[in-house]
Every structure is written in structure tokens, then in C-alpha cells.
Amino acid sequence: MLPLLSRGPKKGAQDSLKQSLHGSVARALPYLAEPHRDLSEPYALAEFAIAAAEFGDKQQSSAAVTKLSKLAAPEHGGVYWALDHNTPFYGWGQAGRIESTAMAVLALSTVDANARARRLIDGGTLWLLQEKDRYGVWYSGQVTVDVLSALLNGIESSRPANTEAKLNVFVNGGATPQLEVSSRSNTPAILDISDLVQPGHNSIAVQNGGTLSSASMQAVADYYIPWTGTPVADSIRPGTPDALRLAVRFDKTEARAGDEVRCSVDAERIGSRGWGMMIAEIGLPPGADVDRGVLDEVINNSGWTVSHYDVLPDRLVLYLWPHAGDTKLTFVFRPRYGLKARTAASVLYDYYNPEAQVALAPADFDVQGGPRPESVKTVATK
Asked: What pLDDT sits at residue 63?
């Protein structure tokens, strides 16, 4: 039998490890403090402030928070912290701004609780709540984790432990069924107001009966805008430092059911900002049977520039990690039946900042039915 192993280091070894770690951090903080004096990057300042506060260095953490407070910018009744570069988790653009704001709120709530800090915490919290996307999260997973951490540390809740309320919602002056909410449930209460919405301006009012002290609400709408002009095979988002380029070309858009259709894709990040994964969604006609064997071969020969794919009913989703230059690939699909239909739009966007995207208009496919079966002769016999 094997000897019984210890479940962990003994107390003497634990104390020795703690002393070693304490000494390492004690030497690291002064080393980091020097460049942070001239730094105006909110994400890095917030991380340094939190690290110094956790270590117990009030002087360093307070200095970082003081500088962080001066970088706050007002917007939409709240405040945010702008980000000039990428975060360690590839966040940039609007998603990076949300992540840096979350880290700033987290640092302020960890380090300081004076009146000015409280105003910034409340302002940053309000700004973050307004930036929630239609899915109830904040862009990527890492950004959402940072925002939720900031909200948990930054919001001072004044509501009772258990609160139930009935809210009256009015859409364009018309009443809806009462909305029942409870603090004992983490499940959002959903109300469908599509029958009361009209083209143009709409007003939504929520009336609180007085028993609910605070709440977070979100309105989500789906709508369609018809494409105008002729479809294009190549599109670029020009004139910005986060420019992307996408080209999608089908070797034919008129075919018979079962014919092979080849699609060439060329995706490129040509701007000076952003890094990390991009998502390309290539619109396909209904009933397209994508050759997965060809796609698997593309991934195996891509050197990780194409890391994964998903085949959906109306599109092919490609996960790209482009190196210098562009990412080119060709895949094959076969229409299963005759149809005249329009594909979904093809889109290329940055995973860590979805607002950086470029779209191509849909393509029209005319697919004839498969070959007619050969005629069968019937011979009558006695």
C-alpha cells in the first residue's frame, strides 16, 4: 500500500510560505508604485489600488485611488473611466471601457468610503447598469464578472431583506397587467409589451407602489431594417483605428439541389487597435448541407488562425485568431432542395468588442430541384 500523504503543508511550512509571499509582495509594491505615479490607465491603477489595499498599504492604495478619481468622466448621469489600450483579457473599445469602469468602482469601494468616493461609486454603478446588453450581461464573460464584482461591492442596498411589490407599467399611456417582483427571487420578471408598441416614438412608464426601494429594469426590442442596394462581396469599416475587412464570395448562386457550392472567406483586422479573437458569421441559404470534413481540414491546416466552427441553420460561425495579415479559407456546402431564398447577412466582429464589426448584404440563391427520376415502364401481362 502507498503511504498516507499529508493533506497539506504543516503549520511551520505554512508560516514559512506566508512570510516568503509577504516579503515578495512587500518588494513588488514599491517597484510597481514608481511607474504608476505617471500612469493614467484606469484599469492598471485600479488593480494596483486593490492589490495595495489587500496588502494593507494604505498610503499606496490611497494615492492610486486619488489619481483614479481624477480620471472619471461624466456621461448619461453617471461616470465612466476611459481606456486607451487593451485590458489583460483583450477588452478594448466600449467593452474595455466597461471593464475599466468596473475595476475603478471595485477599487473605490475597496479602498475608500468618503463622500467623493461614494459619489463616484454611485455614478460608476449607474453608468454600468445602463451599459448592460440585450442578453442581460456585459459583452464578454470577463467583463461581466468584473461588473458583477463591482456591483456587489459598490451598491449599498437599502431595501428590506424580503420585499414583494406589484408594479404598474404604462406603455404609450395604456396600462398592462401588473408586474409582480420579489427580492427573494433571482429570476427576472418579464413583461411582453409588443402589442402596445407603435412605429416611431414610444413611452414606457413604471409606477412603484412604494414598497420597492430600488430595481434594475431593461427594455429589449427586435426589429428589422431592409437591405438597400445590390449585394456586395467585400466590405470594410474604413477610417477608424478598429477597422475590419470581410470578403465572402460564392462560386455560384444558381445551382441544382445537391450541387457543390464553394464559398471563399477573407477576414482581416486592418486597424491599429484590438487584439484577440474575431467571429465571422457567413450567411447560408436555407437547407445548406455544409461539408464538415472540409472544415475540419481547414482547422487542422490553419495553424490556429481558425480555431473552431459552428454550423447553424442559416449561417456558418467561424472563430478566428488572425496572425499578421488576413485569414483566408474556403468551405463547401450543398443545397438539399430547390428554393429561391436570401441568405442571412455575413458579419465579422471583434469578440471582445462587438461594436467593431463589418457586415455584408445577403446573397440571393436560386436552386432548382434535383434531377427528375427516370421514367418507369409498366408492362402488362396475363
From this structure: 87
